[in-house]
């Protein structure tokens, strides 16, 4: 009987939720997709083929039971669909909004491979949990039994919060430390509101706090509180700091005035959206309004920057990327959204140097060699793709003599992130790191070289996806629970 509700992909076409027009959405930071109606969500879920080997599930880092909750949605059993979704994912409403589904579940959907168009998995996942919150199905965290052991979590991003949720539900006492004044990490300060509105993150933060998770904010480890103090206070510690050190350009004047870091730009914009006062935004340094903006990079952070600059009222926004469209790491869906909003992509291009002049002096369009000079243009080097590198992607090669100057008053570096030197910054001995500077942790258990200390997310993987951080946090929570239970048993003996 259930199968009669499914396998509709031959008769029913793929539809995403209605998207607000580019003209309308470019003026605000609200999410661009409307909500599915119940009938439309059920219709789109019914397109699932319920295949015997669900590639959508195997290609999801969390191995979500996607076919099951699609079937339940198609049958109108939304509360059960939410329960199934929540079993494997701590924050399904967030993953439904920001996961690159085109590279994960939807990109590996069987009916997509057969030419019928993928099931709109992410939009349905978002709809299920938003409905659950609206209907009051999301229950508060109430541990069946309290445990005396405590866990300190450094970092309130997706990995740390996922671990906090899971550990608290088991009854452990959990304290989350974060350097910022709000919990959420990049979900609150890095990802723009048009992809993830901040009340969605704050709603989960409230659930954790009301469930007994303690948050210690404005706590920069190594400055405001020592790592040893946190370790001494708790029975286990989880490091989930993420990676915040910006990769820089390998050119002589990479720090010219008017050249800013992507994270500074996005954080300021998100803080303004949250109602904060930001001096560097007020004086124009981090505000793109009225400026010709160039964003350097081709990942998801670059996409966030170009679309934010459009909303701030930039005169023009261009994205320089050294490879072509096919080889860019960012979501193709995001590229399409950006193009609709007026962003121009300049493929096979890289910055060679910055051009500018000292205010009040002549000499515009000369290479910047004065610390008071402000950028007026980027000297762009044209590239071509050569032989594949070690990753299998074609390496960009410089085309000699094809340079030109691209006018710009603001340049945003969105080149990715690297780990900070935590052992040095925190004064910790014995915390092993890899040659890339990430913390060395055991696969699966997430145990570091220090007893009772675990690490998850980008500080272990390098810059990665929110969904991978959630998976790591959930796995580490289980490892920490096993470690503390074993420790308690040994002490009892």
Automatic annotation (TrEMBL):
It comes from the Bacteria. Keywords: 4Fe-4S, Iron, Iron-sulfur, Metal-binding, Oxidoreductase. Residues 151-473 form the FAD/NAD(P)-binding domain. Residues 26-136 form the Dihydroprymidine dehydrogenase domain. InterPro entries: DPD_II, FAD/NAD-bd_sf, FAD/NAD-binding_dom, GltD-like, Helical_ferredxn. It comes from Paracoccus isoporae. Signal peptide: none annotated. This is Glutamate synthase (NADPH/NADH) small chain. One of its GO terms (molecular function) is metal ion binding.
